[in-house]
Every structure is written in structure tokens, then in C-alpha cells.
Amino acid sequence: MKIFFDGGLRPAGMEYALVCRGERRVRQDLGPGTSMTAEWLALLAATRWALALGGPVVLVGDSAAVIAQARGLVPARGDHAAHWAEWQALVASGPPPTLRQVKRAQNLAGIALDRLPGR
């Protein structure tokens, strides 16, 4: 099973989208922040969804930086260190998901964000 995730930043605040098995989940107006924080929030939400569904899962996103941090290849600094610690705690509670990076045009969650009104 694949769960696509993507975070974004608009003037109204951060947002993210998740897509799995044709179902789309979107959260908007998550408050001020950065696009990187929005990507982390998307990854955390995708991980929670994966744990709720159970079974092996591939989390698919287009943020090379967040995926590298989640994999432990690059240190997460500042606020992102807390996101990384939260992600580590989540994945420790179940079978670890596989992380896969794709181009933006291949990310179904990114496409869902692009199709929201006001884009």
C-alpha cells in the first residue's frame, strides 16, 4: 500500500494533503510556519494513517530534505528535530514504513494540493 504525502505553504498558513487508495485527506490553515514544517506535518499524518491501516506501507513524498532527515541521513535541526523525534516514536510502535521520494509531478498528494481552490 502507498500513502502519498505533501505539505505546502500559502499566505493563509500551512497545509498538507494525503492520498491513499483513491481517498484524499486535506488539512488547511494549520497556522504560520514554513514549507519544510508543512512537509513534516504531512509525513507525520501519513505515518499515523499508515499505522491505523496496518500492514506494510510505502510513504511517498517529493521533499528530498524531509525524507533524508526521516531516514537519518541528514540531521534534523531546530523545530524539525522535534518532528524527527515524533516520527521516530511513531515508527517504533509498528512495522517501519518505507520512504520513497518521487518528483513533484508524480506525487498524487502534491497534485491534490495544486487542485485546491486558490492555486
Automatic annotation (TrEMBL):
Keyword hit for Hydrolase: yes
Assigned keywords, A-Z: Hydrolase
GO MF term list: nucleic acid binding; RNA-DNA hybrid ribonuclease activity
Enzyme Commission number(s) from the entry: 3.1.26.4
UniProt-listed Gene3D superfamilies: Ribonuclease H-like superfamily/Ribonuclease H
InterPro entries: RNaseH-like_sf (IPR012337), RNaseH_sf (IPR036397)
Superkingdom per UniProt: Bacteria
Name recorded for this polypeptide: Ribonuclease HI
Species per Swiss-Prot/TrEMBL record: Sphingomonas abaci
Organism classification: Bacteria, Pseudomonadati, Pseudomonadota, Alphaproteobacteria, Sphingomonadales
